[in-house]
Amino acid sequence: MTNAFYSQFAGNAVKSSVLSVEILRDALLPNLLGDDSSGILYWAGKDLARQFPVAGNDDLVTFFDQAGWGHLIIDKESDNLITYELTGEPIARRSFAIKKPDFMLETGFLAEQAAARTGCVSEAKITFQNKMRLRIAVTVDHNQPLTAHDPATPIEIVRPEADQATDGDDPESNADES
């Protein structure tokens, strides 16, 4: 169901309303969750990462763009630390509209994606945040392997632009046929 769910919406040309997403994320959830909102959103991000595992960094970047979470950049990557930078219109919009925007959903998602890839306990935290970007550091603890770790099959990332170019609809590729 997860791959079909993702494919149906990621490939849809009609994008969801930003207003509907922001109402749920920044008005409803904080009121429902109260003071525990950040912690719950972190664990919700980890749960979403288990539902929507991605195969690698390129897929992770694409998924973040498609989810409307912003433009993800892998800043540094070592054996036990991955540093990401998250920028773009979604970050700026939420930062200017909301007094203290919460990005723990994204933070938890990155922590769990690292755990799935390494098979080790991974935790993430925001190490820098301003109105235009934030930096998230994911620490991988190789001394704590996940027990009964059975990696899920990654979802197939939908790339509409790439799919269209292979359909033979590219004007330049059809020029030779004339």
Automatic annotation (TrEMBL):
Pfam families listed in its UniProt record: DUF2507
InterPro entries listed in its UniProt record: DUF2507, NO_sig/Golgi_transp_ligand-bd
Annotated region described as Disordered, given as residue ranges: 145-178
Biased composition (Acidic residues): 164-178
Coiled coil: none
Name of the protein: Hydrocarbon binding protein
